[in-house]
Design brief:
By secondary structure, the protein is of the alpha+beta class. The protein has a single domain, classed as Nuclear Transport Factor 2, Chain: A. The chain is built from two helices and seven strands. A hairpin with a 4-residue loop joins strand 2 and strand 3. The longest helix has 19 residues. The radius of gyration is 16 Å and the shape is globular.
């Protein structure tokens, strides 16, 4: 089983050790990183990442949702380590943001990842 460091809470200062993750928690942290990179920007040149900025200036919300949902589904088809179980999107008009909640599953465990772009 793969083990990695939790980049959000790297150090446990009480125990003076590095926080380690495995299983679906490790995959969720990896997805949080990959989904925040623009596509083709990683140094190893793969097709991972999500280009949400290209949708910022579109005004048709239904079209935006469909385009982003299609990009996310393509991402998960390429990624292949977990299943996309749920995808919800809302628009925050006050802060001019798109909020995307992605639920992923591995076996009988699920986790939610929230992306915000504005």
């Amino acid at each position: 089983m793969a083990v990695g460091a939790d980049y959000k809470k790297l150090f446990n200062h009480e125990k003076e050790e590095i926080n380690l993750l495995s299983g679906i928690d490790l995959i969720v942290r990896e997805l949080e990183l990959l989904l925040n990179f623009p596509r083709h920007s990683l140094f190893f040149g793969n097709n991972m990442g999500l280009d949400l900025e290209k949708y910022l200036y579109l005004s048709n919300r239904r079209a935006i949702f469909n385009l982003i949902a299609d990009d996310i589904k393509k991402f998960f088809n390429t990624y292949g380590r977990v299943n996309l179980t749920s995808l919800e999107m809302s628009f925050d008009d006050i802060n001019s943001k798109i909020i995307i909640d992605i639920e992923v599953g591995l076996g009988n465990e699920t986790r939610t990842i929230t992306l915000e772009r504005g």
